Amino acid sequence: MSIKISSNKNNNNNNKNKNKNIIKKNCNNNNNFNNVVRLCVMGDGGVGKTAVTTQFVSNHFVHYYDPTIEDSYRKQISVGDKSYILDILDTAGQDELTAMRDQWIRSCEGFVLVYSITSRSSFDQVLHFREQIYRVLDRDDIPIMMIGNKSDLINERQVSYQEGKELSQNLGMSYMEVSAKSRSNIDEVFYEAICCVKRKEELYRIKSKDVKILKSKNPLKNKLNQICKVM
Ligand SMILES: Nc1nc2c(ncn2[C@@H]2O[C@H](COP(=O)(O)OP(=O)(O)O)[C@@H](O)[C@H]2O)c(=O)[nH]1
Ligand SMILES: [Mg+2]
């Protein structure tokens, strides 16, 4: 597995996308600053995991489909006045890789679960991947972002926005529809994923440091909403 290193600087040859990865919002996270975030991109074969990741990291759309591609990417992203290094694991879905996938899951702090809005079965598979993550990590409150890709293919839609939203709300995941092809919401996915991770870190910090805050005027829910607003 190779590491592809990309940065805002490296992408400056593409003027159109020059500042796209500098997102103005801020996670407002004031705890000890750890700027490396490891994310794992999972989902059924063909849903666009590689296309989403490549569009984010390299600003181009991959037309061909190679189900065996799995790779690790690194990219720097600025969120407000903070700079993060994202390590992104783009996984492949073959069954024989299950043991390896368990290892990936253990090594990651946040997850992006992808389905295609044109494939009902890929939507159903989200539950399977989520269960796998919970089984391997065996803890609550795992930062997971669910995304419905291929939103440009409106005539082939099999899963409605509402269904996606309801499932994500029921399972406590952040949610967005995106298109790797048109680059719609691609930066926002990774921004929100970073925020999910930082929100959970803050939650653990608050819980372990000062339990009183739970009973104070400023309830935990409000506190977390201040850390990063869901888009
Ligand atoms: N129209 C459209 N096609 C997409 C989109 N994302 C991926 N694809 C196509 O779907 C196929 C599978 O994408 P890929 O990223 O390889 O899927 P993966 O197996 O999940 O990594 C490729 O032919 C892509 O060009 C999208 O947002 N819109
Ligand atoms: Mg792939």
From TrEMBL:
InterPro entries registered for this protein in UniProt: P-loop_NTPase (IPR027417), Small_GTP-bd (IPR005225), Small_GTPase (IPR001806), Small_GTPase_Ras-type (IPR020849)
One annotated GO molecular function: GTP binding
CC per GO annotation: plasma membrane
SMART domains documented for this protein: RAB, RAN, RAS, RHO
Low complexity composition-biased segments: 1-16
Enzyme Commission number, as recorded: 3.6.5.2
Localization per record: Cell membrane
One of the GO biological process terms: signal transduction
Top-rank taxon, per record: Eukaryota
Disordered: annotated segments: 1-21
Position of the signal peptide: none
Reactions accelerated catalytically: GTP + H2O = GDP + phosphate + H(+)
UniProt keyword list: Cell membrane, GTP-binding, Hydrolase, Lipoprotein, Membrane, Methylation, Nucleotide-binding, Prenylation
Function statement: Ras proteins bind GDP/GTP and possess intrinsic GTPase activity.
Family according to the record: Belongs to the small GTPase superfamily. Ras family.
Protein name, per record: small monomeric GTPase
Upper classification of the organism: Eukaryota, Amoebozoa, Evosea, Eumycetozoa, Dictyostelia
